[in-house]
């Protein structure tokens, strides 16, 4: 997420500068301001030209679904990604328009747009029954405070009805896009996310071009100019470059939103990156072309933005600290895998932490768990699983594992990639791990080599007790194997 946010920050700066410079008439190509509607057609054509280049050379086009016409198999898009692409096109078009209004700063329009999306994000999370972490609420609150402080400068600007209508269109686009994405793709399943990303990406600039063309045919004069005489001017190339730069930031933003975590986690990070890039773009244009600088209130708002970023990064920082390699040697990472990650794999993780602490090797091994069929990421451990662990004396186990703190998460290729060994509850789980991360085949195995560990879900408490005792025995056997491994022995030698 850090790299995605940084990429978005870097790519947004040239986009915002290009739009505002053309709309303000401060480019070497022309001293006359260009109307926003005139810019949009060339910008949309620039994005629609570079979009297939990105999909082709990145190889992502292979993730599109396959349809058939007249007996021939072709790449196609689904109805949900077609609808998401329509809403995304509203975002693309209105974002560009929002920076073209005279007398309004880049940073102010960013705050108006991002503030609406910040308020929207927890509402959509709650509507989809997605857990919202405390750090996300804190980041959201600080981000909203940043917006409120910055809006103190609104009296210095003239917001026309058209500008407000453009901001409203932007927010409608985000609401529709997030709602569809929540249902169709934001589930932690890599194949689904990749398909949605590519199909929405392919549809968005096409939808935008069609909408603009329809407006031109309906008689909007500036759009007609944008599709005709404007394309023959030197400014057309600069306007097309707006679409090219938007294509880059669109990639980063889409990947941020598709992260399996709640919108209330990703949206403040995205909003903060936007504010920072808007600040850089605003002062760059002030220095280079004399465009009006942001007001003091907008600068004070950045302090709250920094606080929001710190709050959002806190869970990741804690996780890094807990799993960092220490001075005694490298850390050996063990991953337990089941279906929903609320019962078997989570119990195995807790049991492993406790046994490693008792054996004195918790400094050298890190345990975690995930599921191949997680439907509700962030769900707590099943109550009967916690009860079964308590029977084993693990209600408050030694070491770092705690049943009360567990939250389910879906398995990802990245998680497989950083794990030295992956223990699965069943052969079917092992097959799914290998299908998701083929390179992990040699280090993926069943926790119990004698057979599957059956799921107790939906059964009596005694079934959970049997499962917990089974896991206790198999985890102990596997841990004894690991303690004798070269990695652990090397770490213990350095510790001594």
UniProtKB/TrEMBL annotation:
This is Phosphotyrosine protein phosphatase I domain-containing protein. The chain crosses the membrane at residues 7-27, 39-57, 77-93, 99-120, 132-151, 157-175, 196-218, 238-258, 270-289, 295-314. Keywords: Membrane, Transmembrane, Transmembrane helix. InterPro entries: LMW_PTPase, Ptyr_pPase, Ptyr_pPase_sf. It comes from the Bacteria. It holds the Pfam family LMWPc. It comes from Streptomyces colonosanans. Residues 332-481 form the Phosphotyrosine protein phosphatase I domain. GO terms for molecular function: protein tyrosine phosphatase activity.
């Amino acid at each position: 997420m850090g790299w995605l946010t940084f990429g978005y920050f870097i790519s947004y700066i040239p986009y915002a500068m290009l739009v505002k410079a053309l709309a303000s008439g401060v480019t070497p190509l022309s001293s006359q301001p260009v109307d926003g509607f005139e810019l949009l057609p060339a910008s949309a054509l620039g994005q629609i030209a570079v979009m297939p280049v990105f999909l082709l050379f990145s190889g992502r086009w292979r993730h599109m679904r396959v349809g058939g016409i007249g007996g021939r198999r072709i790449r196609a898009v689904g109805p949900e990604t077609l609808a998401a692409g329509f809403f995304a096109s509203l975002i693309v078009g209105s974002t560009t328009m929002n920076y073209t209004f005279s007398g309004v700063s880049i940073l102010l329009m960013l705050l108006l747009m991002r503030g609406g999306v910040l308020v929207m994000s927890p509402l959509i999370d709650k509507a989809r029954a997605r857990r919202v972490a405390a750090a996300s609420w804190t980041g959201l609150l600080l981000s909203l405070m940043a917006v409120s402080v910055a809006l103190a400068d609104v009296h210095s600007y003239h917001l026309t009805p058209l500008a407000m209508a453009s901001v409203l269109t932007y927010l409608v686009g985000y609401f529709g896009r997030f709602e569809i994405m929540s249902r169709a793709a934001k589930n932690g399943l890599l194949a689904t996310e990749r398909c949605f990303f590519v199909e929405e990406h392919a549809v968005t600039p096409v939808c935008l071009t069609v909408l603009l063309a329809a407006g031109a045919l309906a008689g909007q004069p500036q759009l007609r100019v944008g599709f005709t005489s404007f394309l023959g001017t030197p400014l057309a190339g600069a306007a097309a470059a707006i679409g090219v730069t938007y294509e880059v930031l669109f990639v980063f933003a889409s990947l941020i939103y598709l992260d399996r975590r709640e919108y209330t986690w990703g949206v403040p990070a995205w909003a903060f990156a936007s504010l920072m890039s808007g600040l850089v773009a605003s002062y760059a244009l002030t220095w280079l072309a004399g465009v009006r600088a942001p007001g003091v209130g907008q600068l004070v708002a950045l302090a709250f933005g920094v606080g929001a970023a710190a709050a959002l990064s806190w869970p990741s920082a804690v996780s890094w600290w807990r799993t960092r390699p220490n001075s005694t040697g490298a850390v050996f990472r063990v991953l337990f895998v089941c279906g929903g990650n609320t019962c078997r794999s989570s119990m195995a993780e807790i049991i492993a932490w406790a046994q490693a602490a008792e054996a004195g090797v918790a400094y050298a091994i890190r345990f975690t768990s995930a599921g191949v069929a997680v439907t509700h990421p962030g769900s707590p451990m099943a109550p009967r699983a916690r009860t079964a662990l308590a029977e084993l004396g693990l209600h408050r186990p030694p070491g770092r594992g705690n049943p009360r703190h567990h939250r389910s998460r879906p398995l990802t290729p990245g998680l497989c990639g950083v794990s030295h060994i992956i223990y699965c509850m069943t052969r079917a789980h092992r097959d799914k791990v290998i299908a998701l991360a083929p390179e992990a085949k040699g280090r993926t195995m069943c926790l119990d080599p004698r057979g599957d560990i059956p799921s107790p879900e939906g059964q009596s408490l005694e079934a959970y007790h049997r499962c917990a005792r089974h896991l206790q025995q198999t985890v102990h056997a596997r841990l004894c194997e690991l303690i004798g491994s070269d990695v652990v022995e090397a770490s213990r030698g350095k510790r001594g």
